[in-house]
């Protein structure tokens, strides 16, 4: 059945991944509304704009005719909030965020504007999915868009559980090089050499966040132990689908907590 789909991202309104995902949803007969940042807002996490006004302007000309598009001055989470409470006439059936230009693997999701937009949908009780290509250079987004819509349509047809956010990462290769989609656990990502110290033309120091991920394919938090981590699956050219929920409450043994 045709759905009302709200789409956002953190790469901005001109991003190819966003336009490809919106076009795929629209070509399948869904009613598509795009509300996304007017410029790149990567790694903004779940930040909200509180000290400045948020402006939104129609940008329908950037997308195929029939896709309603809003360009917003706020963060990805702002965009979903604004869409749900001000811009949309009807509540959507589904929230999609992406397709992100780069991976959103493991504990990096806490920094991700892409995942934050989807999480905002989840917090409002809507089925939501974040979609990412696990490469900053890869520009072939159509296969990822098709996989994402297939997953979303099938999951909704089978009663998407409440408070479930799906985080989908697609390997940077053509479909014939991919293995079958699998469920995954979140990996725990740590970085070496977090900052690059540099000197500006006036002789003052500045710092550029430029760490390299330490790929520990075995480490992961909660989840079935027989499931691979998302990082391990991407390394094997396997699309990784990770179930996430907003509840961050401690799941270890109560006896492990420090005495207070």
Q: How would you describe this protein?
A:
Helix 1 links the parallel strand 1 and strand 2. This protein is α/β, with parallel strands linked by helices and about 260 residues long. Helix 1 crosses helix 4 (about 140-155) and helix 2 (about 75-85) runs parallel beside helix 3 (about 115-125). It is built from five helices and 13 strands.
Q: Return residue spans where pLDDT drops below 50 for at least 5 consecutive residues.
A: none
End-to-end separation in angstroms reads 54 Å
Strand tally: 13
Mean pLDDT: 93
* Helix/strand class: alpha/beta
The Rg value, from CA coordinates, equals: 19 Å
H and E order: EHEEEHEHEHEEEEEEHE
In one word, what is the shape? globular
Mind summarizing the main beta sheet?
9 strands, mixed
Helix percent reads 10-25%
Strand order of the largest sheet: 3-4-2-1-5-6-7-13-8
- Quaternary structure type: single chain
Discrete helix count:
5
Q: What is the percentage of strand-forming residues?
A: 15-25%
Layout of helices and strands:
Layout: E1 4-8, H1 16-27, E2 31-37, E3 56-58, E4 68-72, H2 76-87, E5 94-101, H3 113-123, E6 128-133, H4 142-157, E7 165-170, E8 182-183, E9 190-192, E10 195-199, E11 205-209, E12 212-214, H5 230-235, E13 240-244
Parallel strand pairs: 1-2, 1-5, 2-4, 5-6, 6-7, 8-13
Antiparallel strand pairs: 3-4, 7-13, 9-12, 10-11
Helix pairs in contact: 1-4, 2-3
């Amino acid at each position: 059945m045709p759905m009302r789909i709200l789409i956002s991202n953190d790469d901005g309104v001109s991003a190819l991944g966003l336009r490809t995902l919106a076009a795929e949803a629209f070509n399948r007969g869904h009613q598509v509304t795009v509300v996304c940042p007017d410029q790149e807002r990567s790694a903004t996490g779940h930040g909200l704009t509180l000290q400045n006004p948020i402006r939104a302007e129609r940008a329908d000309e950037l997308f195929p005719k029939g896709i309603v598009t809003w360009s917003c001055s706020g963060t990805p989470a702002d965009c979903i909030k604004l869409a749900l409470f001000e811009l949309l006439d009807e509540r959507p059936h589904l929230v999609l965020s992406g397709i992100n230009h780069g991976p959103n693997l493991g504990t990096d999701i806490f920094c991700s504007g892409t995942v934050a937009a989807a999480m905002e949908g989840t917090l409002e009780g809507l089925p939501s999915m974040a979609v990412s290509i696990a490469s900053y250079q890869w520009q072939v987004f159509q296969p990822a868009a098709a996989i994402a819509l297939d997953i979303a349509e099938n999951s909704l047809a089978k009663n998407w559980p409440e408070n479930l956010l799906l985080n989908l990462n697609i390997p940077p290769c053509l479909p014939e090089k991919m293995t079958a989609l699998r469920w995954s656990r979140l990996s725990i990502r740590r970085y070496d050499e977090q900052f690059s110290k540099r000197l500006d033309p006036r002789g003052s120091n500045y710092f550029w966040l430029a760490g390299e991920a330490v790929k520990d394919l075995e480490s992961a938090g909660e989840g079935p132990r027989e499931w691979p981590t998302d990082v391990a699956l991407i390394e094997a050219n396997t699309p990784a689908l990770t179930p996430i929920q907003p509840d961050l409450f401690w799941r270890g043994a109560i006896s492990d907590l420090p005495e207070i």
